[in-house]
Structure formats: C-alpha cells, structure tokens
Amino acid sequence: MKNLLKNNLSFFIPFILVWFVSLVWVLETPKLDQMIWINTHRTLWTDSFFWWATQLGEGWFFAITIIIWLLLRYKYAIIGTIAFAISTIISQGLKFSFQTLRPSEFFKDISYPWKYVNGVELHGFNSFPSGHTTSAFCVFTLWVFFSKKSALSPVFLGLALLAAYSRPYLFQHFPEDLLGGAVVGIISAILSVEIYQKYFGNKYPQLSRKGLLTGSN
Questions:
Q1: Hey, which residues does 101 pair with through a beta bridge?
Q2: Are 133 and 185 in contact (CB under 8 A)?
Q3: Between the chain's N and C termini, which has fewer beta carbons within 10 Å?
C-alpha cells in the first residue's frame, strides 16, 4: 500500500488538497446554499456536458473498462473485477446503513425554483455515499496504477472529479456524498491491488504479462 501511494503522488497529493478544500466548504456552508450555488451555475451546454460526465460513474462504463483491461492484461481485469465487487459492497452497505435523503426529497418542502436537467430521473433516497463517484474514482485510480505514467495522473483525476461534480449538478447528490464516494472508490482500488498481489501475484506471474490481445513468450 505504501508503494502505491508513494509511486503515485502526482495523483494523491492533488486529490487530498481538493478533498480537504471541499470538506471545509461543506462544513462551513449550509446544504441549501451549497445546492443553490451549484444549481445557479449552469448553462444548456453544461447540462449536456455533465449528463455525459456522469456516465463515467455508471456500472456499464466500469464493465467496458474491465473488458478493455482484459484485452491488455489478465491481471488488470482481475483487479478491476475485485475492485468493482469491493466498491459495490461498501457503497451499497453504507447507503442502506445511513439512509440519507437526496436533494429532491430533502428540499421537497422548500419553495425554490430549482432547475433540472431534462431527461434525468431524480431519486430521493440512499444518498450517502455517491455510487457514481465511488465507481469513477475506483476506475480512474486503477488507471493511474496501471498506466504508471505520472503525466496521466492529472487527467485521470480530472475525469473522476468531473464525474463526481456531475452528481450534485444533476441534483442527485450533496457534495458530502461525493467526499465519501471518492474515499470509498480509492480505498476499493487499493484493496483490490493488495488482494491480487496476495492471492494471484506470486502464484500466477503470467497474468501480468498476458491479455487477450497481448502476450509474452
């Protein structure tokens, strides 16, 4: 775990800075003010943009990513599958443990002209943590680990942050849900690598060299 953190500081340091700045804002700003600020900073273009950005946290995107990893290295696909299982179990377990309300239900008795994105079905319950944020951070953290190129870390972090921000933008989550989801996603990615190394790494070294489209003699 220490090596994963040490070797990917270009990802983790910016993430920690963004996370703590966001935490301070969440703690000092009432939920209503948070959502009003997000809800008023929008355009027709950003409505479309963040609808697409939220797809990065969908289950189908995770599944397609695992297929891509399967083509590259069996190791990546196995780690991705483990990470998907861990992130889903933790995220869903927390959702049903906390039973928090989403914005549409939380503010149902407050008179305010909220603006919604057309075609988005609003949900009312199981808000914390954000499942889309969990999934996006899990996927892109793994991409950081697999790519081993520090120059790509800001790109992957940026994609994860866009997916996360899309959730309150679409009025599906509060910012605090994103903070929890991001942590769950990253922890799931780290645990999946640790589990792979413990149970597969030394026993099946060929998995690190081969994929459906790649191989090593």
A1: 125
A2: yes
A3: C
